[in-house]
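Protein: Leucine--tRNA ligase
Species: Myroides albus
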Amino acid sequence: MKYNPNEIEAKWQKFWKENQTFKTDNKSDKPKYYVLDMFPYPSGAGLHVGHPLGYIASDIFARYKRQRGFNVLHPQGYDSFGLPAEQYAIQTGQHPSITTEENISRYREQLDRIGFSFDWSREVRTSNPDFYKHTQWIFVQLFNSWYNCESNKAESIDTLIAMFEKEGNKTVKAVCDDHIPFFTAAEWSSFSSEEQEAMLLKYRMTYLAETEVNWCPALGTVLANDEIKDGLSERGGHPVVRKKMKQWSMRISAYAERLLEGLDQIDWTESLKESQRNWIGKSVGASVTFNVKDADHTIEVFTTRPDTIFGVSFMTLAPEHDLVLKITTPEQKAAVEAYIEATSKRSERDRMADVKTISGVFTGAYAQHPFTKEPIEIWIGDYVLAGYGTGAVMAVPAGDTRDYAFAKHFGIEIKNIFDKDISEEAFAEKDGFVLENSDFLNGLDYKAATAKVIERLEALGQGYGKTNYRLRDAVFSRQRYWGEPFPVYYVNGLPKMIDSKYFPIVLPEVEKYLPTEDGQPPLGNASVWAWDTVNNVIVDNSLIDEKTVFALELNTMPGWAGSSWYWMRYMDPTNEEVFASKEALDYWQNVDLYIGGSEHATGHLLYSRFWNKFLKDLNYAPTEEPFQKLINQGMILGTSAFVYRIEGTNTFVSKDMIQGEKVQKLYAYVGLVNASSELDTEAFKAWRPDYANAEFVLNGNGKYIVGHEVEKMSKSYFNVVNPDDICEEYGADTLRLYEMFLGPLEQAKPWNTAGISGVAGFLKKLWRLYADDNGVVITDQEPTAEMYKSLHKTIKKVIEDIENFSFNTSVSQFMICVNELSQQKCHHRAILEPLAIVISPYAPHIAEELWSMLGNSTSVALADFPEFKQEYLVESSKEYPVSFNGKMRFKIELPLDLNEDQIKEIVMSDERTQAQLQGREPKKVIIVPGKIINLVG
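Structure follows.
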């Protein structure tokens, strides 16, 4: 009876599917536990061995919790809108839904083969209309809400309208657009309905605004910062420029403080929390208004150092700032416009990261110092960002390193306001100084000067104390086809929401997935994309009359729309009326354990927390935070292989034969290289047409040796290892155990297929405890104390490891335990039955088969996890080292319940002791029961 992993795994995967073993009920007397993996995008390339790492860890934990008496929700689905499918549609004309379906089918096949305990009855896909109709509904709730700073939460827009009707907007404390003019209740009533709608748009949680965006002309869409690398789109490597576009935006900034405070309530790593704190970027300081000299303009700046206001030597505006072209003098116009053009080709991320390059242009204009009225030069520089703060800074070179370098570079006078030497560098500390050359602030320190200058600014009407955040409102429009359609039509340029009872608003068919010739988004190609407000249906564009039929929104929502609330849909995935019922939401509350990659530390996690808090404000979500505990799994790295081609030829030189000639280092597919780093040259020639006529300079052994480098596992590096191949050769249980065995979950670790055979051998050894060639060898005899000890050491260790997410050390303990039980010739049911349960979260297929061989008819996944019993680890005897004058000479096994006199009597009568003493009496016998025996003299 041999262990056949492929046969066993297919059998039990079929069993789980047919019996819906992992189907979860929303009602249970058991405590709930919700385990979730970060929403995967179904790539056409399928999984490589790095992808399942987090899934295996979450699956182990979900299976363990299930066996510990919890009602476990462990769902899976697909973040199935996305740019890759759209790009493929542009290239081939194939509808993205077809590509997505094929990708999902492949993904699901691979996931099933690894044996995950997902409740597939709850599967969701963001690209399915029955899912995104709820995303559209949430968008409408955001549109119909505003953020009340007094109640510190989002509220219905109706409460804001009531305030306007009663008292106007002067006393309203809201997160809203800047510089909204005040109006009275009477003035509000006198506004036309369109004027009222335009005003409300300045307060809504989602709103239309001219926004600086990352525009990729080649892809025809806006990109998020994390979709850009070195000024190029991450997908395709196309140039990205900054430009202004009218976009839907979300007021995530309203939640900045709550997003910060919430970090103290959740169990995330400190490094992850710090990433979010830095992204939110809270700063306390002052808003200062500078008048532009000889012009009817003002420049508002936010500064964390209002105490340094008398050290302002110049001002710097972001090149995109609205005022730049308005205040630039004719003499400086050409230089300023050229600089703006050059800056538009750099991403915000690149500009923020580049601290070495100093560049800027003088506008020719001057501002006035609010106190001295002295003229201050106004420059533009790309180290200032339009979207951060006000897009303008008051430059104090004496107290800021970057301002200091800028002033030195351009020869701008530096005003020293500190009792410190700044001839070599700026003094950027907030303590250890008093101010000088600072008028009414002379002799004051940072704290006293800050309070005093804010008081004077407020008296002048040119500033006030303010808390600022780096977190900016999130752009929510994408010029793409394959995304959630907005449920929006336009009347006289103002957005109107379609009633949710007509949702979903389904994506229309288009002939081309590229933007239109006149630059409209791909939905501009749709011929049936207008809203009939009488019949409440989508109709042909030719019927648009701007009376009852209107144009629909042409942008789609970004990829993060569906992923910002999807965990709640898993709680009640078939509900057609609401995104999840109150009963389901109240039962599951939030995700107890969330596992995924660190690349989502800011974007996805901030947006998710924002939407969750918003839905909590409107009494739809039961908790403030969506994910109670979060773990980032480390990356499994690939070992790339390199060949070396002599430049200008198709001749490849073995790595150990390179003699100094100029060679190109090229990737080779790792499947063509054996464990000794030898390339299969014939297979290499057959691999790619351009290598068909390759020639090789081999080493003295007639081999071609490749080079290696450990780096990210990627299809473009040809270092991807397909999990299907591992499952086929060794089985899924071997893959699961090996991925955990590679190292701590949260650390990056290189993949090395050479080590997998040891894990496969371990499973065969485990099998032999239960069966030999002739069949099952289980006995009902009473196990020995040593057998119980081996088992309970393992139970204890596995419980501790799973609770602490130290899965790699559990695998080591399994190996130790099986080795010990093999030596003890253990085939005892009382040991092997609990052992099958303990190992089942890690290797579920073999565990199911062993459980069945033991005579059980139910799934091991539903068995109770064994209880650890301390008494089996209590030692009844101790092997003492016996030392003479501190040197150990022999060991003796003695019962632990002996007292000192009994131990001394036994040791002194031992012939080995007599041989050491040679008739002498020791001066002293030191005995520490349970530890040492030492004879002195």
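Remarks: The two ends are 63 Å apart (CA to CA).
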